[in-house]
Specification:
Strand order of the largest sheet: 2-1-3-4-5
Distance between the termini: 31 Å
Number of strands: 5
CATH superfamily: Carbonic anhydrase
Oligomer: single chain
Radius of gyration: 17 Å
CATH topology: Beta-carbonic Anhydrase, Chain A
Structural class: alpha/beta
Length: 213
C-alpha cells in the first residue's frame, strides 16, 4: 500500500513494523517530515495509528517507528496507565480521526513496573500522584506473580496484555469497532538495547498471540 491510501488494520500494523525495522537497521527514511508534509497536514489529520505508550523518554514514537507528521496520534503516560482522559483520547483517534489501529507500547526496564513490583513486595510506595500510577499497575503485577512469573519481561508483557484488555473492557466504542473489523488493538513490547518492537497480544488481527504460548 501507499501512504495515500486508507489502510486496513493489517496494513497499518505492517506499515508500523516496517518503520521499526528500518529504525533497527539504521536505515530510516524519515517519511513525512518535510515542509510539504507540514503544509499538507495543516487542514486536517488522518493518522494511521493511535499509539498509547509509556512516557519513557527513550520511546519517542515517530523515531522508533520511522514516521512523520500526521502519521501517529500519540498518547503517553508513565507505565501506560489509562484513566478517563486517555480513554477519551483513544476514542477520539479511532472515532473522529478514523485510525484503524491502536497500539499499546510497553518496554523493558520500565520504571513504573519496577516501582510497583517493589511496592507489592516490600509494602512501600511513592507519594503524591506517583502513587496513583503504582496503584494502576498493581493488578498487572499481582496477576504476573499469581501466574508464577519472575522474569521482568514477563511482568512487562502481562502489563501490556492487561492494558489492551482494559481498553476494550472500558471503551464500548473501541470494542465495537474491533468487533466490526474496522480497528485492531495490539500490544507491543519495545527493547531499549536493540530498538525492536515485539508483538505481545493482538485483538482484531489474525496474528499469533504470545499470551497463548
Amino acid at each position: 500500500m501507499t501512504d495515500a491510501q486508507t489502510p486496513t488494520p493489517r496494513d497499518a500494523f505492517d506499515l508500523l513494523l516496517a518503520g521499526n525495522e528500518r529504525f533497527v537497521a539504521g536505515a530510516p527514511q524519515h517519511p513525512n517530515q518535510d515542509a510539504a508534509r507540514r503544509t499538507e497536514t495543516v487542514p486536517s489529520q488522518a493518522p494511521f495509528a493511535v499509539l498509547f505508550g509509556c512516557s519513557d523518554s527513550r520511546l519517542a514514537a515517530e523515531i522508533i517507528f520511522d514516521r512523520g507528521l500526521g502519521d501517529l496520534f500519540v498518547v503517553r503516560t508513565a507505565g501506560h496507565v489509562a484513566g478517563p482522559e486517555v480513554l477519551g483520547s483513544i476514542e477520539y483517534g479511532v472515532g473522529v480521526l478514523a485510525a484503524p489501529l491502536v497500539v499499546v507500547l510497553g518496554h523493558d526496564a520500565c520504571g513504573a513496573v519496577a516501582a510497583t513490583r517493589a511496592a507489592v513486595q516490600d509494602g512501600t510506595t511513592a507519594g503524591g500522584y506517583v502513587r496513583d500510577v503504582i496503584e494502576r499497575v498493581t493488578p498487572s503485577v499481582l496477576a504476573a506473580r499469581a501466574a508464577g512469573h519472575t522474569d521482568n519481561a514477563e511482568f512487562i508483557d502481562e502489563h501490556i496484555r492487561r492494558t489492551v484488555d482494559l481498553l476494550l473492557e472500558r471503551s464500548r466504542s473501541l470494542a465495537e469497532a474491533v468487533e466490526a473489523g474496522r480497528v485492531a488493538v495490539v500490544g507491543l513490547s519495545y527493547r531499549l538495547a536493540d530498538g525492536t518492537a515485539h508483538l505481545v497480544t493482538a485483538r482484531g488481527l489474525d496474528l499469533p498471540d504470545s499470551s497463548a504460548a
